[in-house]
Amino acid sequence: MRTALVIGTGLIGTSIALALQSRGIQVYLADHDPAQAETAAALGAGTAEEPPGPVDLAVAAVPPAHVAPTLAAAIRRGCARAYLDVASVKGGPRRELEAMGCDLSAYLGTHPMAGKERSGPLAATAELFEGRPWVLTPAEGGDTEVLNIALELVALCRAVPVVMEADAHDRAVALVSHTPQLVSSLVAARLQGADETAVRLCGQGIRDVTRIAASAPRMWMDILSANPGPVADVLSEVSADLERTVAALRALEAADDEARAAGARGVEDVLRRGNAGRERVPGKHGAAPAAYEIVSVHIGDQPGELARIFADAGRAAVNIEDVRIEHATGQQAGFIQLMVEPQAAPVLAAELRERGWSIRQ
């Protein structure tokens, strides 16, 4: 691959362009909003000029509803050797292209499993896809050359290729991406009319659960409108669990001992199933999740504090496996949680205490 055309210069398209451009690929940028393409070009993602001839790869980085018309126009112009899209839904766009009578021998649907709460080219980064799964959905009898170009794109973006059937992909993302977005939004919506005193009690748990609720509604309407059936199926199962959990909680208020015991079993059941499901979420480097120890350290909200604590952890020869910050309400301070291998926790805690850090037991 020497040349590429990226159609759509939002977060994903511009990030792809930045990754390709940084690895020596000449990238041409197109967008329905020329100003956005110019912004991406100014960031170093390529040029907003028209390509002088057919490119090696055209990538449609547009919302699911626009994939088919965008690619159909590109295919009819013959602007590339291979055509990919990176939309979060795969079955629908391919069926739309087939209905339009397009020759799909040079097309392959893909989906990089990466993103941010922020959108647009200014949020883009060449490192967005590093280590992230990138789903490829080749059709039966597809062109091997197109698959090879897609694999080259994934490699250049330093992502991890995963091959799936298109409709199986759509059911999977309904479970692991689209439904969590709605559930996060549903929880966050409870805060809209909540008493200010209650909101001031928000801690790390509610921040974790509602983080993705900050995502752009328009973007998610595009995604959910393209995959409504599978998402509704998952939400229906969640709804059934909620009804049983509500009934179990009501039973805990009953005067009857047997009813309370049944309620307790019902609540415990959903908590235990949650534990079991959480254990299946891949951990670091895609491996099974590890049981890390947390060393929680009081840290001031001022420049240089994070660098200093990481440097001190390095002096202890301890590898930080993961990290999170818990902000203290109304204070210029908080706690940084350093997640390490269990045998390293006492070593790290002792080293940090010696260097003047306050450790929360």
From TrEMBL:
GO terms for molecular function: NAD+ binding; prephenate dehydrogenase (NAD+) activity; prephenate dehydrogenase (NADP+) activity. InterPro entries: 6-PGluconate_DH-like_C_sf, ACT_dom, NAD(P)-bd_dom_sf, PDH_C, PDH_N, Preph/Arog_dehydrog, Prephen_DH. The keyword Oxidoreductase applies. Residues 294-361 form the ACT domain. SUPFAM superfamilies: 6-phosphogluconate dehydrogenase C-terminal domain-like, NAD(P)-binding Rossmann-fold domains. PROSITE patterns: ACT (PS51671), PDH_ADH (PS51176). Pfam families: PDH_C, PDH_N. One of its GO terms (biological process) is tyrosine biosynthetic process. Belongs to the prephenate/arogenate dehydrogenase family. This is Prephenate dehydrogenase. The keyword Signal does not apply. It comes from Streptomyces rimosus subsp. rimosus (strain ATCC 10970 / DSM 40260 / JCM 4667 / NRRL 2234). Keywords: Amino-acid biosynthesis, Aromatic amino acid biosynthesis, NAD, Oxidoreductase, Tyrosine biosynthesis. Residues 2-289 form the Prephenate/arogenate dehydrogenase domain. Its EC number is 1.3.1.12. Coiled coil: none annotated. Pathway: Amino-acid biosynthesis; L-tyrosine biosynthesis; (4-hydroxyphenyl)pyruvate from prephenate (NAD(+) route): step 1/1. It comes from the Bacteria. It catalyses: prephenate + NAD(+) = 3-(4-hydroxyphenyl)pyruvate + CO2 + NADH. It is an enzyme of class 1 (oxidoreductase).
